[in-house]
Every structure is written in structure tokens, then in C-alpha cells.
Amino acid sequence: MHPMVKPALRRGWRDLNTVQFGMTPAHAMVLGPMDTATGSFLDLLDGTRGMPLLRAQGREMGLPDGHVDRLVDRLAASGLLDDTTGGGPAAAALRENKEVMDRLRPDLASLSLVARDPGEAVERLAVRRGLRVQVRGAGRVGVAVASLLAGAGVGEVEVRDVGRVEPWDVAPGGLPAESVGERREDAARRAVRRAAPDRPPRATAGERAGDVTHGLSLVILAPRDGLGVHAPDPASAEGLIASGTPHLYAGVVEATGVVGPLVLPGDTGCAGCLDQRRTDRDPAWPRLVAQWRSGRRRRVAACDLALASAVAGLAASHALAFLDGDPPAGAGTRWEASLPGCAWRATPVPAHPGCACGSVTKTNGERTPVDAEAHETMAGRQPHAAQLAGTWRAHV
User: Fold this and answer.
1) What tens digit of pLDDT does each residue of 43-81 get?
2) Are residues 296 and 356 in the same domain?
3) Contact 11/92 with Cβ under 8 angstroms?
């Protein structure tokens, strides 16, 4: 072990005996009592030394026997310590790729604030590179989400769509202006490859040709038509429900951004549950939806660029939280923000007893710790220790 005080947390002395790690209430922690010699020793915990050398240098600084080990254990138990050699073989291989690591260092620093154990942050980053995510929709939201996920280290991000790029599909962080007229899937694939820290593996011709869900950790439904996210068609997700594939809705309808629900099949409310609960509240809902779906489509749908970017950012954040093994805030919930205020509000999407998805049999769609562990298996991984151990952050 080569211990390192997590560098993402700024350190400051609150008084002569108390050290504060971190600035924001969500992540800051106060430790004390801390004498001056121990405070000076903290500077040696920079990841370049193993424990034998640290013990020897501690003795040279006058620290009593066993003090260094107790300090390291205390910092590790508080979630303040990382290990520059931890994370397993995949993490070690990632560290050796300096060019990729330099691109991902800000992400690694951020992960270190939510991953409890030493070496866990780089382990999560290495796990991302083995995941496969599919984004359905290559508009202003879909390509931006796909690029964000690829840039954050997700190894394989596919984008599915039809038609050719129109001028109104262009967006910063998404499709570039020079892609107008190209096939949407081809242009989106290039955008994703440009965003990735290295060249991810390319999907096979068979995977690109079919509606393949096998091996997918997550599908993001980001339709260019806002109706597809405002009133998602339950039939379009039947294959995802049947295969147990987690999926997340994201898009812009009129002047409202929508993220969610994140559907965990068999557990949380789905598009069918949303549709039936709306029908329960408003008997005219099916009639309206039928008219919206059968009416003449507008050639250019409303999609504010800044709002679309905000939607893409929140959707990518929820997706990464799920993929990293953290309890996802978007599970069974829709987040909406409307212009001009753009204040996000959350609306639960509980399971409906009349929906064929069967989620209502699981505590009406409410997640339990056991369910959270099961969904980690659905995503292709075992649950992280931090999730099973519970929260570790102390608020200042």
C-alpha cells in the first residue's frame, strides 16, 4: 500500500488541534485532536511511499511506534485516504496508460470523493472501461450524453438513430457543423470517438445492424422528438423490460427538459406505469397521446441549446452514478426543468398494479438494499464496498 491523502480535498487548520479536509458540506470532514508533528507528517502521505518507509520517516520525526499505522487506519476509516497502488490488475493496467490517465485525472479525483476505500476510485474508473452503453437518439441531447459518457471513461458507447444530420442537430459537445448531411449514426460514432480518452472498441457489423441488448449495462432513450420523452411509448421499451436491461429517458419537449425515470426492470416504475398513472389522473390522457402520436410531425422541434446541454449533463451524471454502483437518484423518478427558470423538480414514478412490468410486486417500486445489490449484478458488476457499508461523509 502507498497511502495518499485524497488530493481532491483541500486541507486547512480550524485551530491548533483540528484539521478540516475538504471545503463543501457534502464532502468535508474534521479530524482532531491533531498535533503539529502529525500534521506535518500528513505531507508525506502523497502516494510515493510504502508503509515501511513511512514508519521509518515517522520515527525520524519523533512520532511514537505504532502512531503512523494508527493514523493511516484512522484516515482510511474516515474515507480520506487513497492507495496509489490499489484497485487490482485492471486499475494497474489503466495507470500504465499515461495518456489516458492524464485525460481522466479530473474524473478520478471526483470519484475519490464518493468512493470510500483506498484504491476504489481507480477501480471504478477501470470498471467503466469494460462497460457497454447504448444511446438511442442522435439529436442535441443524445450525442451530447454519449460524448460525455465516452469522455468519462465508459469503454463502449453506441448511438442508434436513422436519417441524416440536419443543421438543427448541431450542438457544442455533440454533432459538429461539418457533419450536416451525413448519416446520423456515422456522425455520432465519430463524435463519441473524438470525446473518448482513447479509441474504444468498435461495435461489430452485426451489433450495429440489430437491436442488440445483450451485454448492455444501460440504454439511454434520448428521442429527437420531444413526445418520446414526455409520453414515452411503453411498446418501445418492451424488449428492454423483457431482457431486464436498465434504461434511462432524457430529452427536451417544448421548453421543458426531462431526465428519467431510470427504469430498473422488475423493480421501479416504467413507461407503462407512467402512462397508466397519468390515465388514472386524467381520463383524457390516452385521447391526447393518440392525437399527438398520429398528428403531423413538426419539421423542427423546439429544443433550446442550453436546456438540452443541461439535460445531457444531468442524464450523464445519473447514468455514471448507476454504472459506478452508487444508488441512482433517477431510479423511479422524473426530473424536469422548464424555461426560463430552469429549476429542477423531481416527480416519483411509482409502479402501477395494472402494468405488465411487474414492478408493483416489489414494495410498490421502492428500492431496498437487497434490490440495489441485485441491480449491480444487472449492470454486470458486484456492488462496491462503499455502497454496502453505507454513507461515510461527515458534514461541516
Assistant:
1) 999 999 999 999 999 999 999 999 999 999 999 999 999
2) yes
3) no
Q: What is the pLDDT of residue 214?
A: 61
Residue 33 lies in a domain: yes
Q: Are residues 147 and 287 in the same domain?
A: yes
Examine residue 391 and state whether it is found in any structural domain, yes or no.
no
- Whether residues 296 and 361 share a domain: the answer is yes
CB 138 within 8 A of CB 175: yes
Whether 154 and 59 share a structural domain: no
CA torsion through residues 156, 162, 165, 170, sign: negative
What are the cell numbers at 38? Answer: 502529525
Which residue range(s) make up the domain with 229? Answer: 129-380
Query: What is the pTM assigned to this prediction?
Result: 0.86
Answer whether the bond into residue 340 is a cis peptide, omega within 30°: yes
Domain count, the chain: 3
Per residue in 133-154, pLDDT (tens digit) is 999 999 999 999 999 999 999 9
Residue 395 covered by a domain: no
Do 284 and 342 lie in a common domain? yes
pLDDT, tens digit (0-9, with 9 covering 90-100), for 240-272: 999 999 999 999 999 999 999 999 999 999 999
